[in-house]
DNA sequence: GCTAAAACCAATTCACGATTGGTTTGGATA
DNA sequence: TATCCAAACCAATCGTGAATTGGTTTTAGC
């Protein structure tokens, strides 16, 4: 009998969805009301709703409600929303997943002048007299690699990622006269990335970028 | 004498900014407090703050407050701008670069229920009676993989990419009763992706996703 | 003429309660 | 025993209204 009851509820729910006048957003009454109006308990109703959800007929979200039709997709890349949901660890995870592949594309598609520009950023970063300026040139280095991928969409995603990273990153660097030490780990890593791109070696570029970001990540953890 | 007073206030403000312990976000006390603690009226203080704002030392916003340091960047990624600059080929290039790494993260981090959900999407896509519904479940499959990465930032970037893809993709598929053929190339490719994720094999998941997207790309070219 | 003080405006934030899907528990029912 | 119902609780979300804050105007005092 148990199946009969549940099947019955599912059928009645389908009928309800087909006939009832639903508001513009396709929202249907809260579970408590719906259960009462169908004369069943919440548990049974929820089982039936779970069935419909598995079929893709409805979708639900805590605090919002139950809706019919397609789940709306965020059409606006609200960076604020991303910033609030994420954290520095996720940011590094995303960079490690994303930027190596950007570097691979850059290695395959960069123009000669872009490679020169990347080299310039690398050198300027090495010579930076303050940490702030180092950070500036490092940012520009990574973005120029994005430009060199010759894919404006990849570049757009990289910019979005960078915006989130800047917003999430803890305390800003002081403008002190302290400069990165000459044996800063990033220097040799940058060189490996740049050389791989200049050699048009996509796999090596991706590997070098991955090593670089993992190194940044481990130093980030040390600083805590 | 008016100038003397204002210059004095500006100077004292600079001293305050240099010495006072400011909170992490660089916010300084509201105008009313600051005016009182400096022993001047709000109007005079505001003139001095306007001077500092013109110099870029501070920035202000109604309802938020007055802050030192750089004004945070505009936090809305303009999807329309990306759409106008890019094209279907770039979209596929970005997908091929990005989604395999998302699949790799998913393989390492997915929960059991998420793997079940991914399997469900795959099956529903195979059984879809129309191309539109196939597309729906295919989209949901790829997004669920993004959720399974357990990285909200990766998911946000994937959503951005998807939004651009939908906006760029050529004409929509009809809702005809025609359904994907049972030997549709995506079916076996989907299976390979899902199995790799279920096996927690990140490299295999990335490879399978890459093969899948390259296959989609080649079929896209054939259709032209 | 300049300043201080107060009042008001609009954007933003904050706190709190209400709502809602998700989950657990205890008891009733067949 | 197995199922269902009722109730309570949890966490995410939404709505509302008070409080805060920069921006502006008005009024009064020196």
From TrEMBL, chains A, B:
Keywords, comma-separated and alphabetical: DNA-binding, Transcription, Transcription regulation
Domain of life: Bacteria
Residues of the HTH gntR-type domain: 3-71
Keyword Transcription: yes
An annotated Gene Ontology molecular function: DNA binding
InterPro entries: GntR_C, TF_FadR/GntR_C, Tscrpt_reg_HTH_GntR, WH-like_DNA-bd_sf, WH_DNA-bd_sf
Entries under Pfam families matching the protein: FCD (PF07729), GntR (PF00392)
Name the UniProt record assigns to this protein: GntR family transcriptional regulator
Organism: Mycoplana dimorpha
């Amino acid at each position: 009998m148990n199946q009969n009851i549940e099947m019955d509820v599912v059928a009645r729910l389908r009928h309800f969805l087909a006939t009832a006048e639903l508001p513009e957003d396709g929202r249907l009454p809260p579970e408590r009301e719906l259960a009462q109006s169908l004369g069943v308990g919440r548990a049974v109703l929820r089982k039936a709703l779970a069935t419909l959800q598995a079929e893709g007929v409805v979708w639900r979200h805590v605090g919002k409600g139950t809706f019919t039709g397609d789940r709306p997709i965020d059409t606006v890349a609200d960076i604020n929303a991303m910033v609030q949901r994420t954290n520095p660890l996720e940011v590094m995870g995303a960079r490690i997943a994303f930027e190596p592949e950007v570097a691979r594309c850059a290695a395959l598609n960069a123009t000669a002048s872009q490679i020169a520009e990347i080299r310039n950023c690398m050198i300027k970063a090495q010579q930076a007299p303050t940490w702030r300026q180092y950070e500036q040139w490092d940012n520009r280095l990574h973005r120029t690699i994005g430009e060199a991928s010759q894919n404006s969409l990849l570049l757009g995603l990289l910019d979005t990622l960078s915006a989130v990273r800047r917003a999430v990153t803890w305390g800003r660097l002081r403008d002190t006269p302290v400069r990165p030490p000459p044996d800063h780990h990033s220097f040799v890593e940058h060189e490996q990335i740049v050389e791989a791109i200049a050699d048009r070696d996509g796999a090596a570029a991706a590997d070098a970028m991955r090593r670089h970001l993992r190194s940044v990540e481990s130093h980030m953890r040390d600083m805590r």
